[in-house]
User: Fold these one by one.
Assistant:
Number 1:
Amino acid sequence: MSSYEARFKVWRGDVQGGGLEDFKVEVNDGEVVLDIIHRLQATQAPDLAVRWNCKAGKCGSCSAEINGRPRLMCMTRMSVFTREETITVTPLRAFPVVRDLVTDVGFNYTKAREVPSFVPPEGLAPGEYRMMQEDVDRSQEFRKCIECFLCQDTCHVVRDHEENKPAFAGPRFLMRVAELDMHPLDAASETGLDRKKTAQDEHGLGYCNITKCCTEVCPEGIKITDNALIPLKERAVDRKYDPLVWLGSKIRRRSS
Ligand code: SF4
Ligand code: SF4
Ligand code: FES
């Protein structure tokens, strides 16, 4: 087993401010960035704050920025860096720092609560639901999400624009709206809920200019832009410019 000493710069601080601190840490074969952060805690910085749980890329807790790129620390192998490189680890930039590498990701839970959940179809009990395999596959792709919020962190709409946060749900939750809007058994429209309209009016779909940065950082490989955001945009536009939909909404408004 070979080992070497790597140079790290780790952000330390809290809501009042902070900066990068230099460390030299031992690295062994097969290790990931989270191993090194744990070694730092064990040997040099016992009060270094870091959030993690599974160390298997499944809980979504260990999100941080490594050399400026949003990544899971437990899934970033040290072997992707050269031994000479200085590796910078900083907290997610789009969310407020609590301490060191830990951020307050509450924004995402607020946005999650703003998306109305699946509306069960009337007259069908769970177990009687039948769907085409392609509809099942679509939902299953979106359901692979581990809520690491790397896509939320990287999206330029909120990354440096705190002012956009109230009006923009972010890719993870627009994907949830898309999933429900394309779900063949969702009965939201029968209750008067137009998910395409809420995507535009309440969740900020129009802010997304399909740069695909969210897709690029997703550790689950979910095609957020191609399979959720672009179809949702197409459906929202169809709704807006479909003359029958327009006429129907006029008649409904007049009769109510
Ligand atoms: S594709 Fe849309 S949601 Fe994804 S990063 Fe770009 S602007 Fe944000
Ligand atoms: S969609 Fe991907 S990047 Fe976004 S929160 Fe889910 S797993 Fe993370
Ligand atoms: S510790 Fe669970 S995803 Fe990294």
Number 2:
Amino acid sequence: MGTEKHVIRGACVSDARDMHELHARAVDAFCRGHYNDDQMKALLIGRTPEGYLPVIERDEMFVMESDGRMVGFGHATVGEVQALFVDPDQTGRGVGGALLRHAIELAARGHEGPIQLTSTLNAVGFYRAHGFVELEPTELNKHGVALPFVLMEQTRPVALDAYDSMAEAYAAEIEKNPRSIYYERPALLGLLPDVSGRRVLDAGCGPGVMVEWFLTQGADVVGVDGSANMLKLAEQRVGEAPALHVADLEQPMPFLADSSFDVILSSGTLGYIRDWLALFREFSRVLRPGGCVVFSVGHPCSEYTLNETDDYFSTELREYTWRGLGAPIVVPCYRRPFSHMIDAIVRAGFSVERMVEPVPTKEFAEVKPEEYAELMRRPRVLCARVRKPANGA
Ligand SMILES: C[S@@+](CC[C@H](N)C(=O)[O-])C[C@H]1O[C@@H](n2cnc3c(N)ncnc32)[C@H](O)[C@@H]1O
């Protein structure tokens, strides 16, 4: 979604007429086939442009424009995405995803706990693709007609609040932080195969630095991240081309087809995932036979010694306080023993092809000599390439 062309702004009173018209066209285009004729009428009956005004005045609605023309709008309140409407002529252009990310960001302000929404039957797959799960079917009665909907909820990654709130600062820092550019990234690049013409999933893509790199390499890349704010920044960086999904990696990703990727990268994200076995099984499902996962994670030795823990052998949720990205921020993260990592990977059917305990490059020494010396003696990151068998077992 290019920022020059697409803009999301708060709705104003003068938008009401266009919203009314777009709403009717969207319902007609997307809901037909899922609701009968009586239900279709009930979905729209009694609506007027004036009906939007109280909600606009409460600052709960927002509009997306492309070259000055309204292409969609949405409505969010605390904890809830109330509605999204996309111009039917704009489908497949990332408008719905961008509106949803904005709606989630608004709904999450001042709210703890999952974000909920009530989906029309046609939109359930779209919301699934953005990390929502079905809670239960529900029914609304409008003008005497029973309308079926589905109550859905977005699951919450443990570190979501932290990453949502520091997204911009993180994105700026990652460009220049020596630990990223002279330490972790060179190790990951050394493990990645040639991705030109390959389909790549960046699992926990954050602000999209590697999504951008994959595009420059000629890969067809899909990004997934739990933080809508991070994905907004990724979108600003890479534009419309790659599909970006807000989704919790603790959950299945039904929006990704079986055997559809050659390579998965997960850089700095697996520490936030409790259930590695479920995730690596999901990675295996979406990878083609012979495909690989390349990842980096906090080194189990340093994670153990940094934490005051009595029990190396358990997987435990710890809290780290990050400084240097504005106000100190508490980031929850799982610490786990090395054997738990390997067990999950092997039980999910992967074989470990390379395992690297990287050391910094020489450039690191020029900018931060003391930290360089420290990293030459103490590991902080573990990187690996693991492969799904070519026979698909
Ligand atoms: C350290 S950042 C790494 C971002 C990016 N891979 C990079 O190297 O710059 C970790 C990322 O994982 C995402 N994340 C954490 N837990 C997640 C989860 N359960 N599901 C999806 N994304 C998650 C965060 O939102 C954040 O963008």
Number 3:
Amino acid sequence: MFAIDSARRLSFNRCISHGDLVIVYERHDNMKAVKVCESSVLQNRFGVFKHSDWIGKSFGSKVFSNKGGFVYLLAPTPELWTLVLSHRTQILYIADISFLIMYLEVIPGCLVLESGTGSGSLTNSLARAVAPTGQVYTFDFHEQRAASARDDFEKTGLSSLITVGVRDIQGVGFPDEYSGLADAVSLDLPQPWLAIPSAAKMLKQDGTLCSFSPCVEQVQRSCETLQTSFTDIRTFEILLRTYEVREGKMDSCQGVDGGSNASLPFKRKKCSDGSNVLSSSIPPVVMARPCSEARGHTGYLTFARLRCIS
Ligand SMILES: C[S@@+](CC[C@H](N)C(=O)[O-])C[C@H]1O[C@@H](n2cnc3c(N)ncnc32)[C@H](O)[C@@H]1O
């Protein structure tokens, strides 16, 4: 859990306590969020882990089971939380989130409006980006989803930076009280063009908007609406290529330039199956291969800047 101290700084530099949320990390594709409870245990294929052994340890600690197996106890950063949260809706993932936060110019102190909240995947990252003095106001018309998101923000320790509202943003727009105050607006809605006029009203001069849509037809309609009061309209599709890095043998590989393996201690080599290999030493070699199950298209991110009137 994030600790927000009296100076409203976010920090994980403290020890794990009863009631904290930790990410139990086995490997990059096997993690889960666990609430620490003094009298509980975690049981997995490595044995039984007593939560009481975790209390007082720093985030990042390696802890051992009754059988000598181990896991790491990581802090629930927005990056890790995105990978373990319960999916109540489609969510945004790290590649889209990081690009969105950079392109929207979200920095500490910003006021950001968001709709829909969904599973809160994006909201956590927005909140950390505006901390310690900013605020994220996020809206979803689905009451139960909004309530679950509120619970999650309590668990991740970011609730003081996030206000969750229940509201039909496509129908009635954002609340008038934020008119002209928002540094950025983020939309992940089925018909974002219905919310764009209200978003324009909420933004400060020079404020930025992002709309995430999975289909290009939605992007086209949004862009048409954006032309009215926005400038610098740009759409991106973020395609991520993940490589799995592991140690292995080089028998079926040879240097691309035909040189001997021993003369290429840090070079890219071509394998017989066409994949690229990064060799760091021979033997053993560390190989990086594209993951076969890497996620492809998630959606389109359309950005625009409010046109200055004067
Ligand atoms: C795909 S989810 C958003 C996921 C979110 N970006 C995340 O990363 O977890 C879309 C959300 O929009 C909400 N929604 C749909 N129409 C809405 C409307 N008119 N007003 C407010 N929220 C709406 C849905 O209830 C749903 O939770």
